[in-house]
Every structure is written in structure tokens, then in C-alpha cells.
Amino acid sequence: MATTTPSTKLPQARILIVDDHPGTAKTLGRAISQLGPEIEVISAVGGKDAMDQVKDLPVDLLITDMMMPDMNGLELIERLRQHPGGRPSYNILITAYDVPGLREMAQRLKVNETLIKPIPPERICQVVSRILEDMKKSQSSGQAYQPDTSFKILVADDMPDNAALLARYLNDKGYELLLASDGEETLEVLRAELPDLVLLDINMPKKDGFSVLREMRADPEISHIPVIILTAARLDSTDVQTGLNMGADDYVMKPFDRRELMARIQTKLRVKSAEDNIRRRNKELNVMLEIGNISTLRRPLDELLEAILQALVTGMEAGSGYILNPDKSLQKVYPSSSPVIENSRANDLALELRKTDLPLIIQDAQAEGHWLAEWNEKVHSAAAVSLSDWNGGLLGVILLTHEQPGHFKPEHTSLIQSVANQIAVAMDRAGVYAALQEEKFKA
């Protein structure tokens, strides 16, 4: 169903040089290659040769002669604007004739520079250097935001070539990629993987993009996931308005500019990251309020701990939760069908926590070879904190587990520790209450 594509590193700048004189193209290519090791230069002897060489490769900068036998420079620029790898970000047109209207036509095709022959290679290299510097500035500003986590992006597109192209772009930026080839599979992957962003094609089999978007926004579990509609269809303003009203976050038309698309993706992920933090804090606050209310109830300690543990497991969306006591005088588990932890294992966990007196986060017990993996092969991630009394004595341990790697994050420890403090207070109160009752009975 979901597929992750291996990373393919893209060059920082791919430059396509086209001239029907092979010596001219190669000479210029060698000169430009000296500008930096991150540059990849492709030389072609005509428009058709250029299109054959780049195929679906993205091109950052096109340098083309105007007069060529099979296709003139402006025609090549127009063809590359529809290129599946995305149109070049920069275009340089070289011509021997500054004919009337040429510059205006070039401007309409978004040609950045029009250079008149004869022109020395050094002059072209100066122009290219300036363009590369602009590209670096654009990239550095786009990379200013470096999240701590690797985002998952779902590409929903029924065209394998489109998906493969996007896979290279996304893996190059360190994103984890998920793929879906029709509307029904898209919804399945959304609900199973909960990606951070969806690049959604409109024209897909089984269910089109609008149907997928409608179901997404109606499902509370996935309604918050941002969607960028990525389509080659010439949507009119009504279609765009419809998509936005249905909850699309952005539109990008194919063929797209790679850097523009990456910038839009990064913007949406930045917003989602901030919104996720707000949702997490609100959820933690709700969990703390619920547990605080439970702690004030006049109930036996056994029932109190069961209710607190259930609220914590539910609020943290954990698979299982445990309150462990090293001497096994008191142990709780939720849900009740969860595997039992032996007393010796509870002692191991208590000793592990005592070494640092800090909460423990395990991203993947199976990969790390932690004893939790031996105890239960289904457990991958876990979080644990100590239960301590006012004198620092060990009362027990709270352990949460989950079958998915990386479910628990370091930011979750503050909530678990706060709950542990409330449980410790409840246990202390219960101990004091039991002692008073015993004294009263003796009297």
C-alpha cells in the first residue's frame, strides 16, 4: 500500500547548454563546470537533442542559442516550460541578431538574460555565477527552517513518472515518502500512516482528488492534514474556488518550478508543525485536567490508579500502560488484556531509571536491543518515568508502550512526569490514610 522511495541526491544546480555547434557548447560547458563542484553541465547540439538528454530530469538553468536548425531557442524554452521535470528556474538566450521584438518575446517567456553575440565565455560565466549566487541565497532562506523530525509526505498520483519525479525531490530534502495511485488507496494510506502533508492529484481513478479532499475534511482523524493540489488540469477559477472551499491549502500547476514547490511544501509543514504543537499542548492540558479531577475523588487507591492510568493511556494514544511496583505489592495495567510484566523486569526498569533519575524514551526497542523487545516482540517505542515519594524513595514506575517506532517523543515526558507526581501524591495520601486508620483501630 504505502511505499517509501530511497533517496536520490540531486545536484545543487543542473545547467543545460544548447548550441548547434558542438565545439561551442562543450567549450562553454567546461568553463561553467569550473564554477563549482556542485554543478552538473549537460551539453546538447539542438533542441531535440536537449529534450532527449534531460527527459524527466529537472533543469535549473538553460543556456540556449537562438538560431538552430531543428528548433529555435524560444521554441526550446517554450517546450521546457511543459517539461515533466519542471521548467528551468532561469533561462539565458544567446543570439547573433538583436531583431525588433525579440527581447519583448523573450520577456513574455520569462527569459532572464538575452545576450548578443559575439560574447566571450568569461562574460557568460559571470552571468551564470550571479544566477548561482541567487540560487544559493534562495536555498539558504528556504533551509532556514530545519525541523527536528522527518516529515512524512503522501504523493497521491496515478502517473508513475510524476510520482518518481516527486520522490527524488522529496527524498533529497530528507522527507519520508508515501505513495498512492488512486483515491481509495489515498484514503487508506492517510488513515493508516497519518502523513504530515498530501500532494494530491485531481484526476485519479476510483475517487478523484475532490472526493478524497471531501472525505478528508469530514474525518476528524485526518481533517487537520494539509493538502496541496498538484495537477496538470487547466482548472478555471470556479474549480480553484471549489477546492479551496473544500479545504485545500494550496494549488500548484504542472509543470511546476521545483524550488517554488519545495518552498510551498516547507511553508505548509512549518504551519502544521506549529499547529501540531498547539494540539499536543491542548491534549496534554485536557489529560492533566481529567487526571486532576480523578485524583480529587474519594475512591480506594486501587480504583484511583486504574482510572488515572486509563486516562493517561487514552490521552497519550499509547498501546498499553503500566504502573509497576518493584515489590509487586501494587501493579496496574491498561488495557487489562496487555501482557504482564514480570517482577524482575519491573526491577530492571526501576534500576535503569534510577541511573539517571531522568525519564526514559525508547524510539525502537527492537532496533536498540532493549529487554522490552525480548519481553514483547510487538513493542517498539516506550516511555517510562519513576514514581518517587517526597523523600526521593522509589514508589514505582510508569511505563507506556506502543507498537509503532517513534510514537513517544521527548516532549511527552513532561506530561508523563506530571502524572507520575500526581500518582505519587495519591499513593502517599493513601499511605497516610491507611496509617491513620490503623492508629484509630488500635486506639
Q: What does this 3D model show about the protein?
A:
By secondary structure, the chain is of the alpha/beta class. It has three domains: 13-142, Rossmann fold (3-Layer(aba) Sandwich); 152-273, 3-Layer(aba) Sandwich (Rossmann fold); 297-442, GAF domain (Beta-Lactamase), CATH 3.30.450. It has 15 helices and 15 strands. The strands form three sheets. The chain has a five-stranded parallel beta sheet with strand order 2-1-3-4-5, with helices on both faces. Strand 8 (197-200), helix 8 (209-218) and strand 9 form a beta-alpha-beta unit. It starts with 12 loop residues before the first strand and ends with a helix.
What is this structure, in a nutshell?
The protein has 443 residues and is α/β, with parallel strands linked by helices. It has helices at residues 22-33, 47-54, 73-81, 102-108, 121-142, 160-172, 183-193, 209-218, 237-246, 258-295, 301-316, 343-356, 365-368, 371-375, 413-442, and strands at 13-18, 39-44, 61-65, 90-95, 113-116, 152-156, 176-180, 197-200, 227-231, 250-253, 320-324, 332-334, 360-362, 381-388, 394-402.
Features:
443 residues, alpha/beta, Rossmann fold, Beta-Lactamase, five-stranded parallel beta sheet, 15 strands, disordered C terminus
